[in-house]
Amino acid sequence: MNAIIRLLALLALGVAPASAQEKVLNLYSARHYQTDEALYSNFTRQTGIRINRIEAKEDELLERIRNEGANSPADIFLTVDAARLAKADELGLFAPVKSKILEERIPASLRSPDWFAFSIRARVIIAKKDMVKPDEVQNYEDLAHPRLRGKVCSRSGSHPYNISLMAALIAHMGEAKAEEWARGVVANFARTPKGGDTDQIKSVAAGECGVAVSNSYYLARLLRSTKPEDQRLMERIAIIWPNQKSFGAHINISGGGMLKTAPNKDSAIRFLEYLAGDDAQRYFADGNNEWPAVASVVVKNPALDAMGKFKADNLPVATLAKNAAAAQRIYDRAGWK
Ligand code: FE
Fold first, then answer.
1. For the chain, how many structural domains are there in total?
2. Could you read off the pLDDT of 180-200 as tens digits, one per residue?
3. Residue 2 Cα, ligand 1 centroid: separation in angstroms?
4. Residues 238 and 134 grouped into a single domain
5. pTM recorded for the entire structure
């Protein structure tokens, strides 16, 4: 019976069922970059496993997996941000994966028993050069300083990127101090939180606000852009690696795991191991201007090179996941909508 329901689910997705011998992998992915085509076709070439890809926005995919329940055809869930992986984990969607390859390749701070990071991004501070001196915003803590009254722009406090940042701050300064910080930042808002990271970058460049935070890849994307308007935008902005004299810049991840209900578990583990390989790491990271999770893999990315070296927070990403609920409560109490 289960097999029939699963078949119907696959057909509903427009996915052709596999013949008896053919090996397949059903990949639910929030990623859709040009380099991913090579990433997936190389896997099929190496393993003979065909990939059925379902691509949608991160939260939609999670909803879909939940709704499909025990009969979900999904083998792997790939998404971004530790807070989202934490949510999937909390819902009991992942199966633990034991793999020597993954344990050796992915640093312990970038995995949990249930999911693995495959690339890294940083959450950096940006400042409008002629409005806020970069010296004044060297640390996340500075965003709460009264001298920035009316100058801080932000996206929603409920967004996973900000949840994870708060989760890190909780780990470093404790809940009470973290809440005090959130209240200070809210008091400094130039406007009610809205938009995504790119909107904050544009608002800073336009002088609507003097400072904001953004994930590194949005900045790298603009730095690589050949459009004159993007280049002009980036000329007005200073990128600051936060907390270089203390705990380091907040790091988050793209990653994924095998689902508990995965019908093709062997293929799923092979795919996760493949993603930790040298070439796959390069494709995976470069596709979104991120850094590989495997430390020995080097990417040649002019925008990332231009942003320079930095000290990264080495807090285990599993800690971010653990603090996600407390982080949301703090934003709610502080009125960071
Ligand atoms: Fe993003």
1. 2
2. 999 999 999 999 999 999 999
3. 36
4. yes
5. 0.90
